[in-house]
Amino acid sequence: MEASFPGGRGDLQAKGLGQRRRGGPGGKSGKRRCVGGLAAAAAEASKARREKEAEHAQAVLARYDSDEAFRNLYDGVADLFAGLLKSDQEHLHAGDTAKIVFAAKWCPSPRSSYDRATLLCEAIARRVFPRDSSPEYLAIPDKHYAYRVRNRLRREVQVPLRKVLELPEVYMSAGKWDELPCARAWRPRPCASTRGVLAVLLSSGPWTLS
Fold it and tell me: Alpha-carbon distance 83 to 79, whole Å?
């Protein structure tokens, strides 16, 4: 195929380089247009995602205000998670890790799909770190307080507890297969994700079953 181009492949490459220097279709201006188009598409997708999340949030708040049964269930779930997480924190600080339960595993992470659909993380965070628990929280607007306690829930509660629990998912998502605590990974648990975890282990783990 090189013979079909005058001067061979080297000449073609040289011409291409010259064209790029002149700002041709493959040059810097073309790349800028391409990058600009991608950035605009990403911005539009981000805007649509934020609008959808806002719609979800409004729907949850509207139902919370109008549906007593939903409100009781919602508050009960948030109270349960908050109580268990605070108790587990106390066990962790006391070094009594054997008493830590799996609340940190099942508590939704901030900005996860489950959290975006239910707003549960904020409800749990407000219970774990009440506004009157710190003068700093009393001095800032409510939305800033909510943002800070959500991040604090993840950073100071979920991450340390999940680490001490040695959850297989933490090691799997980080690709740390050599550090994966196999005893925990293979221990049967009555949870909906067991089959999925085993499937990933069998297909991606550095071992085979004899």
Answer: 6
CA distance 69 to 20: 65
DSSP string for residues in 40-73: HHHHHHHHHHHHHHHHHHHHHHHHHHH-HHHHHH
Torsion angles phi and psi, residue 139, rounded to 5: -95, 0
CA atoms within 13 A on the CB side of 181: 12
Helix (H) or strand (E) holding 124: helix 120-128
| 8 A C-beta contact, residue 191 and residue 162 | no
- Taking the C-alpha atoms of residue 56 and residue 138, their distance in angstroms, rounded to an integer, is 28
Question: What is the band of 55 on the pLDDT scale with cuts at 50, 70, 90?
Answer: confident
Report pTM: 0.60
d(CA 173, CA 177): 9
pLDDT at 168: 60
Nearest partner of 124 among 101, 157, 95, 100, judged by Cα: 157
Distance CA 181, CA 205 (A): 12
Distance CA 131, CA 146 (A): 9
